[in-house]
C-alpha cells in the first residue's frame, strides 16, 4: 500500500517507512502488520480492512487515491474478573 504522494515522490527509507518532502516521516501499515501489533499488545481483532477513497481536486482536475486501514480492536475480558473488582470489600 502506498499514498498517492509517494507514488510521485518516493523517498523510500526502508519499506514501509518513507520520508516526506518536508523531512517528516510516514509509516504505512498493512492490515496484517496492524493486527499482529494489536494481538501482541493483548487486543482481539473485530475488524481490520482497507478503506479506499478517491479525493477529487476539481480545480486541478486531479484524482488522488487514498487508502486507509480501518480497524476495531477490543481488549478481552479478564477471566478472573475485571479491574472494576479492585478495592471491593
What does this structure look like?
The radius of gyration is 19 Å and the shape is flat. The termini are far apart. It contains two helices and five strands, in the order αβββαββ. The protein has one domain. The chain is α+β, with helices and mostly antiparallel strands and 89 residues long. The longest helix is centred in the middle third of the chain and has 10 residues. Strand 1 and strand 2 form a beta hairpin. The strands form two sheets. Strands 1-2-3 form a three-stranded antiparallel sheet, with no helix packed on it. Helix content is 17%, strand content 40%.
Unreliable segments (pLDDT under 50, ≥5 consecutive)? none
Q: State the oligomer.
A: single chain
The arrangement of helices and strands along the chain is HEEEHEE
Q: Class by helix and strand content? A: alpha+beta
Rg for CA atoms: 19 Å
Taking all residues together, what is the mean pLDDT?
Answer: 81
Give a short account of the largest sheet: 3 strands, antiparallel
Helical percent range? Answer: 10-25%
Calculate the terminal CA-CA distance, rounded to whole Å: 52 Å
Shape: flat
Order of strands, main sheet, comes to 1-2-3
The number of strands is: 5
- The tally of structural domains comes to 1
Annotation field: number of helices: 2
The proportion of strand residues reads 35-45%
